[in-house]
Design brief:
Helices cover 5% and strands 49% of the residues. With 534 residues, it is mostly beta strands. The two termini are 49 Å apart.
Length: 534
C-alpha cells in the first residue's frame, strides 16, 4: 500500500517536524521528498506512516533519509528502500522468527533436524553455532537462559532467489554466584522461498558475553571472560602487572598487584541493557599501556551517547590509572558508515608518544596533532593494495603508484620517529611492498619482462628477489634463487613464507614453498589469552 510504518524513540528529545527524502544510493539524485504532517506521540514514542510516492523503479535500491527537526538541530536516519514484490520478504521473516523461537522450545526443537547438515562444527562452545553443529548446540545445549530483549530483524539482502535476515537480541542467565549474566546474540539467516517449502541455505549464531567484572570471574592467574570469540583485543605493560582488554564494546583494566579492576570506557550503564547503550556499532583500540597502568586508546564508530551522540568518528582518550579518570583528547568526525570506518581504521589508527595520531582514511594518510587539533594529509590517494602496515602499526609503507604492480618507488615511514626511507626500482624493474616482520620492511623486485598474465588473465608478479631491510635501509636478509620466482608472501611470528613458481615456455608453474626466518623475535608476552570449552 506504499505506506511505510516508522517508530521513533525520542528519549525525551523534542521533535518539532518530520520529513523524508528518497535519493539514489550515491545521494546525488533526489527522487522524492515530503513532510509527515500526521503522527502520534505517546510516552516518548512517535508512530508515523510515510506515504511513499509511486516513483520507484521496481528492483532498484534507493537511499531513504528520515529527518527530525528538534529546535535548531536536524537529526538524520539513513536506511535503504527497495520495491521487490516477488521477493517474499514477509514469508522469509515469518520463517526466521519461527525457527528462532523453536530453538528455545525444548519440546519442538527436534523438528529443526531437517535443516541440519553434517556435524563437523565445534560443539564445545555456544559462541558459534551453525547448521554443521549438533542439534543440541542449536537448541542451546545446557544453557539455562532466557531472552531479555525482543529479537530485532535487519534485512541485509533482498533478491528474487534468496533473502538475508539478521536477528539481534540479548539473553540473560544466572551465574554460579547468583549474579545476572548478559549475552549479545546475532543470528544470520539466508533463506529461499518456494511455493512448497522454505529452504534454509545458511544459519550462523554468534554469542558474546557482556563482561560484568563480578568476583566469580577471577581465578589464580586467570580472568574468565565467559562465552566469546578467542580473538581478544588486549595489551599488558612490560612487567605484566596490568592488563587492559576489550569485551563487547567496553574497555577494562586489571591491576594484578593491587587486585583492582576498572571499567575504563563503556556506553552502558551498570543496571540493565538499554537499546541505545548496547548498540554495537563501535570498536575500541588499545594504543599503549605504561608501567603505571595508564592507557592511550581510541574509540571509533557510531557514538551511542555523550557529547558526540549520533556522530560517527574517532575519539582519542587518555586514562590516568592512579586517578581512575579518562579524558577525551580529540574527536575526529567522519562522514562514512561504521563498517567503512572500521575497515580503514583497523588498517591504521596509531597514536605516537608525541601525541600525533595517524589514520588511513578514504585512501589518504592523515596526521592529527592531538594538542592543537590540526589535521594534515601526509600523502593523498594511496590505493589499498599499495599500503602496508606493521603489526604494531608503528611502521608503514606506501607505493607511489596507481596499483601494486606498477610501483617504481616505495616510501617507508616510522610513525614514532617520523623517519622515512625511500626505495626505488632499477631500470626495467618494478618493486612491491610486501609487509613487515616486526618493524623490518619486506619488499620484492620483479623484472618487467617477468610480469605476465596467466591463462585466466590474472597478472603474475614474479619477483626474482625479496629483501628484508631495517628502517635505516640496511639489508638484513636477501632471498634469491636462480630459476625460482616469488609470487606472494605471508608473514607470521617472524616467519616469511614464500609462494614460488618456475618459468616455463607458456608461463609459470607452481613450485614448492620456501621460507625465511627472521632472527629477531618479539619478546614473549607475559599475558596470554586462552580459549576454553564452555
Amino acid at each position: 500500500d506504499r505506506k511505510l510504518p516508522v517508530t521513533i524513540q525520542t528519549y525525551e528529545t523534542s521533535v518539532d517536524a518530520i520529513s523524508y527524502e528518497i535519493r539514489s544510493l550515491d545521494g546525488e539524485r533526489l527522487i522524492a521528498n515530503a513532510d509527515v504532517n500526521s503522527y502520534d506521540e505517546k510516552k516518548g514514542t512517535i508512530k508515523a506512516e510515510l506515504e511513499i510516492q509511486n516513483l520507484l523503479q521496481e528492483g532498484e535500491e534507493y537511499l531513504l533519509l528520515i529527518n527530525l527537526e528538534s529546535g535548531n538541530d536536524v537529526i538524520y536516519y539513513y536506511t535503504r528502500i527497495v520495491e521487490m514484490p516477488n521477493a517474499h520478504v514477509d514469508e522469509s521473516l515469518k520463517f526466521v522468527k519461527e525457527f528462532h523461537n523453536t530453538t528455545f522450545n525444548s519440546e519442538t526443537s527436534g523438528t529443526l533436524s531437517t535443516y541440519m547438515e553434517k556435524t563437523t562444527g565445534d560443539n564445545t562452545t555456544l559462541q558459534f553455532v551453525s547448521l554443521n553443529s549438533s542439534l543440541k548446540q542449536l537448541a542451546w545445549a545446557d544453557f539455562n537462559g532466557e531472552q531479555l530483549t525482543t529479537p530485532v530483524p535487519s534485512i541485509k539482502e533482498i533478491t528474487d532467489t534468496y533473502n538475508v535476515i539478521v536477528l539481534d537480541y540479548v539473553v540473560t542467565s544466572i551465574g554460579e554466584g547468583g549474579e545476572s549474566e548478559y549475552y549479545n546474540v546475532e543470528e544470520y539467516y539466508r533463506v529461499r522461498y518456494t511455493s512448497s517449502r522454505m529452504y534454509l541455505l545458511n544459519f550462523e549464531r554468534r554469542m558474546n558475553q557482556i563482561f560484568r567484572g563480578e568476583n566469580a570471574s577471577f581465578f589464580d592467574n586467570y580472568i574468565e571472560l565467559g562465552i566469546r570469540s578467542g580473538n581478544v583485543e588486549y595489551q599488558a605493560n612490560e612487567t605484566g602487572t596490568t592488563v587492559a582488554f576489550v569485551q563487547e564494546g567496553e574497555l577494562w583494566s586489571y591491576n594484578e598487584t593491587e587486585n583492582t579492576l576498572a571499567k575504563v570506557f563503556s556506553f552502558r550503564g551498570y543496571e540493565g541493557i538499554d537499546n541505545r547503550e548496547n548498540y554495537g556499532e563501535h570498536d575500541i583500540k588499545i594504543v599503549r599501556i605504561d608501567e603505571a597502568g595508564s592507557l592511550d586508546y581510541i574509540v571509533y564508530g557510531y557514538m551511542n551517547r555523550g557529547n558526540h551522540e549520533g556522530e560517527v568518528g574517532a575519539a582519542v582518550y587518555y586514562y590516568r590509572a592512579e586517578r581512575n579518570v579518562a579524558t577525551e583528547e580529540i574527536f575526529v568526525p567522519a562522514d562514512i558508515s561504521y563498517e567503512m570506518l572500521k575497515k580503514q581504521l583497523d588498517r591504521l589508527s596509531y597514536v605516537n608518544k608525541q601525541r600525533e595520531m595517524y589514520l588511513y582514511l578514504n585512501e589518504n594518510l592523515c596526521k592529527v596533532d592531538i594538542e592543537t587539533g590540526t589535521t594534515t594529509v601526509v600523502r593523498e590517494s594511496i590505493p589499498e593494495d599499495c599500503f602496508v602496515v606493521s603489526e604494531s602499526q608503528e611502521s608503514i609503507a606506501w607505493m607511489d603508484a596507481d596499483n601494486a604492480s606498477s610501483a617504481m618507488n616505495i616510501t617507508v615511514m616510522n610513525l614514532e620517529s617520523g623517519e622515512t626511507q625511500r626505495f626505488a626500482a632499477d631500470d626495467g624493474q618494478k618493486i612491491r611492498a610486501l609487509g613487515f616482520i616486526n618493524e623490518d620492511f619486506v619488499y620484492g623486485m620483479a623484472n618487467d619482462s617477468d610480469i605476465l598474465k596467466d591463462i585466466s588473465g590474472n597478472e603474475v608478479f614474479a619477483m626474482h628477489t625479496v629483501r628484508i631491510v631495517s628502517i635505516d635501509g640496511n639489508v638484513k636478509k636477501e632471498y634469491h634463487q636462480d630459476g625460482y620466482y616469488v609470487t606472494g608472501v605471508s608473514i607470521s611470528d617472524g616467519l616469511l613464507e614464500l609462494d614460488r613458481v618456475v618459468r616455463q615456455e607458456n608461463g609459470y608453474a607452481d613450485a614448492p614453498e620456501d621460507h625465511i626466518m627472521n632472527g629477531e623475535q618479539q619478546s614473549q608476552e607475559l599475558v596470554t589469552g586462552r580459549l576454553a570449552t564452555v
